[in-house]
Amino acid sequence: MNRLLVSMAVLFIALPMLCGCAGTQETSTVDPKPVNPEIPQAEVIETGFSAALMESYPDIYKISTSDIHNQLEFLKHLAAEYTQNKTSGIREEDIAVLIGKILLDGGKGLDKDEKYAILMIAEGKGQDDFIIIDGNSESKSIPSSAVHIQKLLDDDADAIKEETLIALSELGINSDIAKKIAPLLKNNNESIRNQAAAVLGAFDCKGYLQDILPLLEDNSTRVRVTAIIRLGESGIKETAKNIIPFLKDIDPWIRECTIDSLARLDAKEAVPEILPLLKDKDQRVRSWAALALYELGADADTLKSMKIDVTILYERLYQIDCDCKNKDGLKCHERVKTLLIALGTSEKKILKLQQNALDNKTKKQ
User: Fold this and answer.
1) Residues 6+ apart with CB under 8 A from 214
2) 145 and 119 in contact (C-beta within 8 Å)?
3) Which of 15, 49, 74, 186 is surrounded by the most beta carbons within 10 Å?
4) How many CB atoms lie within 10 A of CB 211?
5) Domain ranges in the chain?
6) Each residue of 168-182: pLDDT tens digit?
7) CA distance 343 to 353
């Protein structure tokens, strides 16, 4: 940390030099356009930075002529200022424009750690690893940087490709970025295939359906799970026939995800196939089967007769991603609560289960 504090101090002293020496160098003519059309044009400087940033850092227009490593150090400083609201008027788009300048040629000259640092700034994560954060700071992602960091999808290092996909899943993508991601569904690295499927499936599963369906036969369990989940989230009912066979998969994780995806697709035709899973040897699978059957219209009395362990059901289903919603938009824990009420579970018992699940989730974090 002492080393970082010294680095920041040097940065503040050397800022005029960072942006160009002697003032004789010309500003680069290859500057990205402002990525947010809502910024008033009167506040947009030729460089793409806002007037407010130019006022705080008058020499910022020389940044394009500075060494790329110095640019990155200034980006870290600027991200800290933005996160802590220390400099009035710094916009998200200013951070994005600076990221764009650094990655103008795809990040040539940067090592893996430096590229990773840029991705962390874009995601609004891990700032305390490389910039000074005070007690009042909060993470702020930079969604408008997506158009710039997507260049790192061409990086030679698989780890950078994967982290770029993770960042893009947080920031959001457009159709042009989606087209660039699509070929990665066939990448040799299963982590890259998995992240590509997650991002594309969330963005436009229907548009990339023919690219995602083959992943159901992928040799990686993780990739198959992601494909099944994204198909369930897509709302494309005709895909139910493609995933029903996975109810008999030997892997309980695959069976769980298949059950839930069929529930989200409102695939009532799958009820006869799901019913036997109420007696599955895996407790998690039995829990998912109970929830899915209830949501697909099974009689509550029938479910009661199956002696469902509501503690296992609640703890397992509550701890998954709470953005996992059914066709009616109910989040996972809301879905479980609805089932527990139907099973005759008291409100007091439900509250206790909820608290226990929260406590267990906190312990694991």
Assistant:
1) none
2) no
3) 49
4) 18
5) 1-148, 264-365
6) 999 999 999 999 999
7) 14
